[in-house]
Specification:
Blueprint lengths: L1 E3 L6 E3 L27 E2 L3 E9 L3 E8 L4 E8 L5 E3 L6 E3 L5 H19 L10 E7 L2 E7 L3 E3 H7 L6 H20 L2 E2 L8 E4 L3 E4 L6 E2 L6 E2 L17 E2 L3 H17 L6 H6 L6 H4 L5 H10 L11 H8 L8 H9 L6 H9 L3 H7 L11 E9 L8 H7 L1 H6 L3 E9 H13 L6 E3 L5 H4 L6 H6 L11 H4 L6 E2 L1 E10 L10 H5 L5 E5 L2 H9 L4 E4 L9 E5 L2 E4 L5 H14 L2 H10 L4 E2 L2 H10 L13 E3 L8 H14 L1
Parallel strand pairs: 18-19, 18-20, 25-28
Antiparallel strand pairs: 1-2, 3-4, 4-5, 5-6, 6-10, 7-8, 9-10, 11-13, 12-15, 13-14, 16-17, 20-26, 21-26, 22-23, 22-24, 22-25, 22-27
Helix pairs in contact: 3-4, 3-8, 4-7, 21-22
Amino acid sequence: MKIRCMQCMEIYDDEYDVCPHCGFVRGTAPDEVYHLKTETMLRGRYSVGVVVGFGGFGITYKAWDTQLEKVVAVKEYYPSGLVNRASDGINVRLYAEKARDEFSIGLERFLDEARSTAKFGQHPNIVNVYDFFEENGTGYIVMEFLDGISLKEYLKMNGGMLDIETSTNILLSVIEALKVIHKEKILHRDISPDNIFICIPDKVKLIDFGAARISDGEQEKTMSIVLKPGYAPPEQYRSKSKQGPWTDIYALGATMYQMVTGVVPTESVNRVVEDDVKEPYELNPKIPEYLSNAIMMAMALNQDLRFQNVTQFEEAILHQRKVLSLKADLKRRKRKRVLSLSIITGVIAAGTAISLFVYNKMKFSAELKEATVDVWIPVDSESTLYSETAFLSRIQNFTTDYPHITVNVEEVPSDQYYDKLQAAAKQDALPDLFISTEANDELLACTCKLNDVFRVADKNEYYLFDQYSDYFPEKNQMPTGIKIALGFKSTLDVDNSTNDFEAFVSGESMYYVASTGSEYAEVQDRFAGQYEVVVDLPRLENGIMACFTEAWSVSNQGSDEEQAAATRIICYLLSETSEDIFYVQNEGGTPLNKKVFADYVDVNWELDAIQAYVDNFVIDKENLFDLQEYCDEEYNALIKEN
């Protein structure tokens, strides 16, 4: 009589105890007592063969489909710790009745895996599900039997990494699978070398849909936390999070990272604290820059910075889509309105910039007599906002329009700045133009009224200009921008600590309240993707709290020509070009110019909600240039409310 070997599935004569094809001895007991014995029949159709894999939730057997007469794989739901095998060696029973709910939920998810996978029928890159059913007190999934090895094993066979061409081909096959999966709004959520199978001959299959879930990609939904360290993005560590195609893309990028570098990326939640992941080309110089950039973009901690669909990732790795480095892309998003000096120079050379700001709106003569304007600015080692180069870039149109005016900029250390101004004032040697943000009344007594600035600037183009006299009754200081109080809420599960930036970005504090400008930029850079912006702070009633940033003053100790030229420079500091350079491109705060303000919000899209308050900025007259006390108070109110 002929019998079938339960290991190789070949037919041989029963007079032999050992399969002549593979050497398997019929009736050999399984390695584990809780595994089904070979030749156990399921659903009267599937003859169970040897075990080909098992883990904490299931056992996979090689099997023979007696109806279709083909080899299949049968996966049995067997959650270790909850169940054991009955004395008959077939049925599954609970260790304790109290575990029934947990078992039932797990079984339903197990069968959901079959339903999810079965949708994709004969797709060449997805394991095919033929059947699924409940029997013996548990559930079974019948799938095509894949002859080959997992990508994890394949990597081990090849010294831990693969060449770029092989890696790319494997990745493209998985992308083809994800295209149809994502089209059905299903997320795999467990992509890793474990679940990518290299078949013989030369075919790649995506397997194990046990973690798959349906997502609309819009709302936050509660999802089970299923992940593999190194491949799961930050949002997958939270039970309630916004997940979408970008979630699988992170895992896909991490898998590609390992294939071409031989290194498993640092776990994403650890990257949030300290991102020490090196760019692929640093680990493998053979990796072209475009591919390295594509992998890092796919692995961005901030899900908004990743590719939003697998087609975009596919185009990037095929070099059909230009991809900047992650750092460069962040700058592009923040500073997409950057005007290069060459373009500005070209516009000026064409004669258009001269009239755009000054001449079209001048209500007094545009002519300035020859003069030398001395400018002082405070500088420190921790900020690049203030320097001679930075200042001259802001007034580049002025120096082009008035080549006969010489502008001398002196950098003064911040800790010496106001003392030096005081000393200069006493000697009638104040600079013609200087930042006067923290100047006292004695120093401001040596400055000019800036009425001429208002003759140039249209108050309808600037926020708060119609309230200028309330804040600066002497009209001897001109602010060019503001800072707005914002709340930041961590999306990690942490406790409240203090209103401290380091505590917030290190995951020790749930909230942080600060202002737009350098503080907001630092949160973006160091805590990308791990926070939400809170515009509606608890104590907000009729407006949004703000303060002015820098303020400029003109000395009354210089000549009339010097005072006129210095005043004109302030006009240029309020121009669209200057406000864009300082506030949008260099993150100096929030511009007063309404048009540039709109661009600032467009670049920093998280701040859209601010638009509702643009006509109701509130500035404390006692703290014109400082929001710290207010931010601390809002922080305390925020944590009390929550």
